[in-house]
């Protein structure tokens, strides 16, 4: 199959081919609900980061419903021309019978469309049965003097399910999975979330020191559990093969061992027994020690995953959970976890609060502060799960920002398929789910969030394994029939349009679109370059006039249903 997207590799990238990183095009496959990129032992797609040689140069990296996946085009600002990101065209690819090998080296010069050529393109798109679409236009004003939040980063989660699935792949494919997410040629992730003990994406519920019961000294917590021995080895391998220098791992416990809980069960209406408040703080310190001893330093922990599951939602949530009210958690934090952590060798661990849905923000923290006025001073960050974002608007994030402006705010869990009305199994190839990610990343970043950690980096074809069948979608889906391939979903690229080009330390800057045809957010990176994410969710192509307060003007036409990252100096 010809990778048309590859044809856009422009002059810009040719100039860059000096370094050892390499660009490999996506092997696109039509599947039930759209298109995926297929990775096998001998082929997996990567994109070397575009570099700019001249101050007027730009690069634009594009993905589209029709099949572009990180296609790259380059050009210059202030040229009296309109640039066009041409969409992937499957028909031509099939017609021409080009093999991948051929297309890989068939690099053509960048495509510059003058205004007249553009008319032909418009006709072209009519032929493609988009007769009703009329090119729309928008002006994007970028002002780097107006600075907002600083980015902490982006990442995914290494759950028990991820560990179990990954372990069944040959080493080369395991490495492709790790590099696809964490290498600079991959998505450039720098954050990761793991569970302390088990979570629902495990083969069964588990915690440290399940036995002996009633043992507040945690005498059985001297070594890593076998499941963590495997997971730690895998994450170390991930660090090695991806070349990541500063992986930041954030951890959270889903539940204490049942004997510490009021209902002596993994799930249901259960809270921590008062007499074990200190033991539960010690449990966190002991786990940090175990990780350190085994060579995997931890960046952050939270006060516990989704505390409201065990208070309000026990009839729906069947997986391991432990309930907290904000009042009780304030006491635990103020008298136990906070002082224990801050007086330990792990005093610099970043501590996140809440780790639950947006609708509890910022009320949760106000209630905590009401119960124990300085309990929230122990928190460095606030982490939020995205699951009800469509119902509870971003103003709750703005209120949180106003209430606690100095805390790091990140999304710590997201995935699609958790709701009864969503088809819970993965939808292979769904562009719509990729769009949903793009829209949500844009909204949260526009409202001051500093980072995002997605849920499982890989799941099987039915969206598991999950020990209570709480199956969902993931950015990569495994082939568990053969373990010879895995599939990168559109969601993978949607996240990459942010994570790959917006490194830690980037600062959001003003980027204002003149109308709703463009959804956008822009950043000034530590290297001084501007990265602007451009999302055209419309059915028509879109002329974007970028007006930068320093660099000047650029006109670029992007296809329908497409997402881009524009880079320039
Ligand atoms: C593509 O392959 C088909 C079937 O093998 C063949 O009939 C056709 O002529 C080929 N087209 C080109 C342009 O080579
Ligand atoms: C927390 O409560 C104390 C005591 O009422 C108050 O002085 C402080 O301003 C509150 N903190 C915040 C962030 O509102
Ligand atoms: C997994 O691989 C097998 C064998 O090649 C194939 O039949 C099956 O369709 C693949 N599964 C998916 C989800 O593509």
UniProtKB/TrEMBL annotation:
Keyword Lipid metabolism belongs to the record: yes
Catalytic activity: a beta-D-glucosyl-(1<->1')-N-acylsphing-4-enine + H2O = an N-acylsphing-4-enine + D-glucose
Record-linked SUPFAM superfamilies: (Trans)glycosidases
UniProt EC number: 3.2.1.45
GO molecular function, one term: glucosylceramidase activity
Pfam families tied to this protein: Glyco_hydro_30 (PF02055), Glyco_hydro_30C (PF17189)
TM spans (from-to): none
Any one GO BP annotation for this protein: glucosylceramide catabolic process
Domain Glycosyl hydrolase family 30 beta sandwich: 505-566
Keywords carried by this UniProt record: Glycosidase, Hydrolase, Lipid metabolism, Signal, Sphingolipid metabolism
One Gene Ontology term, aspect cellular component: membrane
Matches recorded under InterPro entries: GH, GH30_C, Glyco_hydro_30, Glyco_hydro_30_TIM-barrel
Keyword Hydrolase appears in the UniProt entry: yes
Signal peptide: 1-21
Domain named Glycosyl hydrolase family 30 TIM-barrel: residues: 151-502
Family in the record: Belongs to the glycosyl hydrolase 30 family.
Protein name stated in the entry: Glucosylceramidase
Natural source organism: Drosophila lebanonensis (Fruit fly)
Gene designation per UniProt: LOC115620469
């Amino acid at each position: 199959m010809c990778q048309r997207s590859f044809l856009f590799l422009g002059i810009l990238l040719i100039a860059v081919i000096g370094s050892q990183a390499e660009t490999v095009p996506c092997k696109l496959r039509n599947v039930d609900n759209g298109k995926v990129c297929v990775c096998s032992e001998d082929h997996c797609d990567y994109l070397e980061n575009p570099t700019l040689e001249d101050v007027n140069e730009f690069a634009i990296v594009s993905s589209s419903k029709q099949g572009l996946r990180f296609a790259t085009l380059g050009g210059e600002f202030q040229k009296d021309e309109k640039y066009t990101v041409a969409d992937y065209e499957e028909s031509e690819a099939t017609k021409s019978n080009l093999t991948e090998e051929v297309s890989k080296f068939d690099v053509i010069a960048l495509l510059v469309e003058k205004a007249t050529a553009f008319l032909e393109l418009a006709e072209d798109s009519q032929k493609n049965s988009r007769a009703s679409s009329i090119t729309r236009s928008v002006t994007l004003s970028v002002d780097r003097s107006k600075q907002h939040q600083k980015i902490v980063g982006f990442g995914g989660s290494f759950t028990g399910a991820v560990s179990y699935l990954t372990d069944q792949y040959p080493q080369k494919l395991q490495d492709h999975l790790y590099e696809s997410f964490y290498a600079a040629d991959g998505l450039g992730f720098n954050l990761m979330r793991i569970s302390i003990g088990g979570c629902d994406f495990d083969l069964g519920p588990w915690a440290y020191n399940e036995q002996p019961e009633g043992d507040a000294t945690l005498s059985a917590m001297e070594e890593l559990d076998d499941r963590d021995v495997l997971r730690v080895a895998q994450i170390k391998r991930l660090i090695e093969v991806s070349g990541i220098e500063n992986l930041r791992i954030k951890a959270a416990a889903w539940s204490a061992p049942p004997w510490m809980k009021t209902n002596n069960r993994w799930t249901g209406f259960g809270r921590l027994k008062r007499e074990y408040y200190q033991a539960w703080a010690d449990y966190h310190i002991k786990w940090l020690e175990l990780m350190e001893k085994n060579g995997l330093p931890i960046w952050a922990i939270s006060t516990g995953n989704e505390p409201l599951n065990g208070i309000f939602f026990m009839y729906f949530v069947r997986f391991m959970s432990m309930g907290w009210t904000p009042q009780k958690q304030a006491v635990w934090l103020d008298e136990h976890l906070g002082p224990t952590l801050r007086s330990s060798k792990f005093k610099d661990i970043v501590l996140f609060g809440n780790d639950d849905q947006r609708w509890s923000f910022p009320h949760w923290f106000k209630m905590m502060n009401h119960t124990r006025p300085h309990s929230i001073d122990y928190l460095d960050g606030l982490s939020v799960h995205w699951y009800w974002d469509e119902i509870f608007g971003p103003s709750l994030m703005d209120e949180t920002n106003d209430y606690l402006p100095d805390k790091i705010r990140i999304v710590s869990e997201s995935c699609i398929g958790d709701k009864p009305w969503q088809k819970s199994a993965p939808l292979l190839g769904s562009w719509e789910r990729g769009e949903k990610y793009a829209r949500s990343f844009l909204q949260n970043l526009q409202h001051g969030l500093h980072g995002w950690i997605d849920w499982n980096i890989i799941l099987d074809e039915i969206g598991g394994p999950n020990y209570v069948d709480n199956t969902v979608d993931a950015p990569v889906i495994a082939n568990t029939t053969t373990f010879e391939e895995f599939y990168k979903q559109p969601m993978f690229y949607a996240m990459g349009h942010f994570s790959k080009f917006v490194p830690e330390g980037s600062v959001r800057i003003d980027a204002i679109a003149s109308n709703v045809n463009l959804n956008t957010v822009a950043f000034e990176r530590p290297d001084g370059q501007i990265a602007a994410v451009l999302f055209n969710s419309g059915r028509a192509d879109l002329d974007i006039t970028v007006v930068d307060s320093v660099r000047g003007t650029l006109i670029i036409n992007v296809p329908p249903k497409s997402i881009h990252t524009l880079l320039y100096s």
